[in-house]
């Protein structure tokens, strides 16, 4: 059985499709004088930010805050983090809410995935987003994707996400880092028990879900709009945040609040009727509930626990850490 978490939309469909289809995106030329970005990204080995410390008595939970995207030519390495993880009794990974399908079902799913990204009823992108917004899309598409007609058939959420990926890559950033691999190896070498808080839903008939999804409407224009706005205004700060994380400047990160599009885009998926059928709504609340339950359980049992969470969650005034403070835990920031 294979666990596949939902990110934006039917991540299991996208991941399988990616294995069976050659990308039809033609990347635009990387050399353009007016594409230059002033912010110089850090290179080489960087430590990242310090650890948040949550304690009750002599039991401690150490939390590392992660960030995406990060500088493409940076390699993360922190001896302090490695030492804390190696000395811990449990390693709590980020919470997840996802679906599970069998390997056999995965391969049976392949034929139905053709066209899964497309708008229903043969509509084009220009038919489903406001004209003014579509004009802004064309400017960014030319800059970061280049000539491509296939993407014009895609739903707004898919088209915007591809645009974001291309823009991030062209800006010297990456969503793919070595962090999880390093932490996994340290935990394995030191026999640290791993916990993945969350829940999974068994999908017995994935082909039926994909067929329904192809026909169902989705309110994803807000997601499309947010990503367009972010790429028009936030790329420089995105690079500044990446640098601040790399060198461990938490104060700078607080001054550069993330203009994230995740919540709006996830809402387009998780508020859809199809997601509700499978208990996949209210995902942020579910994830926080499962993570907090695991954190409290581990704090009660172990002297030292190590965990990772997106740093945006650690910097929220009413997020995970606030919930722990309300429960009587002492929280110390790096």
Question: How do the helices and strands line up, and which of them pair or pack?
Answer:
Elements: E1 2-5, H1 11-20, E2 44-46, E3 52-56, E4 59-66, E5 70-71, E6 74-76, H2 79-86, E7 90-92, E8 96-101, H3 103-109, H4 125-128, H5 131-144, H6 156-170, E9 173-174, H7 179-189, E10 193-195, E11 198-202, H8 206-215, H9 221-233, H10 235-247, H11 250-255, H12 262-270, H13 273-277, H14 283-301, E12 304-310, H15 311-315, H16 320-326, E13 330-332
Parallel strand pairs: 2-6, 4-12, 7-10, 7-12, 8-11
Antiparallel strand pairs: 1-8, 3-4, 3-13, 5-9
Structural overview:
This protein is an alpha/beta fold and 334 residues long. The chain is 47% helix and 16% strand. The chain has helices at residues 11-20, 79-86, 103-109, 125-128, 131-144, 156-170, 179-189, 206-215, 221-233, 235-247, 250-255, 262-270, 273-277, 283-301, 311-315, 320-326, and strands at 2-5, 44-46, 52-56, 59-66, 70-71, 74-76, 90-92, 96-101, 173-174, 193-195, 198-202, 304-310, 330-332. A hairpin with a 2-residue loop joins strand 3 (52-56) and strand 4 (59-66). It starts with a strand and ends with a strand. Mean pLDDT is 82; it is low at 1-37.
């Amino acid at each position: 059985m294979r666990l596949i978490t939902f990110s934006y939309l039917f991540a299991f469909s996208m991941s399988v499709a990616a294995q069976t289809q050659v990308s039809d995106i033609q990347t635009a030329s990387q050399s353009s004088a007016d594409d230059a970005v002033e912010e110089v990204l850090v290179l080489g080995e960087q430590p990242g930010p310090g650890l948040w410390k949550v304690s009750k008595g002599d039991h401690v939970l150490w939390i590392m805050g992660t960030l995406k995207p990060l500088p493409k030519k940076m390699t993360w390495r922190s001896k302090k983090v490695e030492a804390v993880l190696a000395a811990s009794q449990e390693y709590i990974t980020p919470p997840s809410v996802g679906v599970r399908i069998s390997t056999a079902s995965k391969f049976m799913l392949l034929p139905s995935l053709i066209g899964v990204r497309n708008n229903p009823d043969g509509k084009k992108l220009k038919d489903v987003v406001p004209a003014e917004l579509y004009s802004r899309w064309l400017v960014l598409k030319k800059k970061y994707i280049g000539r491509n007609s296939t993407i014009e058939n895609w739903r707004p959420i898919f088209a915007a996400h591809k645009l974001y990926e291309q823009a991030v890559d062209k800006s010297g950033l990456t969503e793919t880092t070595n962090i999880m691999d390093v932490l996994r190896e340290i935990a394995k070498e030191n026999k640290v028990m791993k916990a993945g808080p969350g829940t999974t839903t068994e999908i017995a008939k994935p082909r039926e879900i994909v067929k329904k999804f192809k026909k169902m409407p989705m309110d994803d224009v807000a997601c499309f709009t947010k990503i367009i706005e972010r790429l028009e205004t936030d790329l420089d700060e995105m690079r500044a945040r990446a640098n601040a994380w790399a060198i461990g400047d938490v104060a700078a990160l607080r001054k550069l609040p993330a203009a994230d599009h995740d919540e709006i885009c996830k809402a387009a998926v998780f508020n859809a009727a199809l997601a509700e059928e499978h208990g996949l709504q209210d995902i942020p609340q579910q994830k926080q509930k499962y993570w907090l339950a695991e954190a409290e359980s581990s704090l009660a049992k172990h002297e030292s626990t190590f965990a990772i969470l997106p740093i945006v969650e650690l910097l929220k005034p009413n997020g995970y850490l606030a919930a722990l403070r309300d429960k009587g835990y002492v929280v110390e920031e790096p």
